[in-house]
Amino acid sequence: MAGGRGLLRSRTVMWSPRPRRRRRVVFTTLSRKTTVVPSEPIDARTHRVLSGASRVAVLEVIRADGPLDIQAIATRVALHPNTVRSHLDRLIKAGLVESSVSARVTPGRPRLSFAAVAGTTSGPDDSYRMLAGVLAGAIGASASEPGAVATEMGRRWGRQATPLDEGVGPLDGAGVVDRIVTLLDDVGFAPTVRGSDQAVPIDAAGDPTVIELHRCPFVEVAREHRDVVCAVHLGLMQGALEQLDAPPTAVRLEPFVRPDLCLVHLAPGATGAHAEQ
């Protein structure tokens, strides 16, 4: 265009991605936003796909209120729809959830709804819980000090469940907390570290680290045999600490501060023994 060279101008725009906010998912969000009553407790030990609290939450919501679409699930569990979609993919591959096309009354893409697969709400978990109840009752009736026996059983469990990383030096306080939280999550306690959404280093104030346990995989047995089951769970953490060269006395379990909540207190000194030398 003659004489129009100045009409078109190119402009260079410097693009930088917006910082992504880290979302902290706390299982108690479910109780605040909706009431979820699962048909059966979900055991993350046997359903390996349920490796974290958020995926357990998605499945429990679907079992309680399904079929639901992605947006409805995301609203209930306070997760981004893309995150929910990723969880659903894993649950579908594991055979725990199935999808179906919902009829639409308005034009647009077909909408998918998700429901729990029939027959997956019960299974070997019931037998494991029955066995746990029998064992807990036997320990309580036969042992002169059932709590001590149960704690030692838990310590053996904790040592076996905490593999050592070769070539990795002693852990600091944050590293020990991370390993304990991972262990509790694998077992099915849906743990969250209190105050982890704040920019304060663990142990910075010299206070114990508090881990909230929002589920108990053996809650029915624990309510009947609390002295045994809770002692096993305390021993589980003590054994893990021993395996990490941290003092086993650094952990304290506060059971059932609410019907749906237990607290774990980790002392500030819960670091690898070699790190203290």
Automatic annotation (TrEMBL):
Family matches, as SUPFAM superfamilies: Winged helix' DNA-binding domain
Q: Which domain of life is it from?
A: Bacteria
Q: Name one Pfam family in it.
A: HTH_24
Q: What name appears for this protein in its UniProt entry?
A: Winged helix-turn-helix transcriptional regulator
Q: Which organism is it from?
A: Pengzhenrongella frigida
Give the classification, highest ranks: Bacteria, Bacillati, Actinomycetota, Actinomycetes, Micrococcales
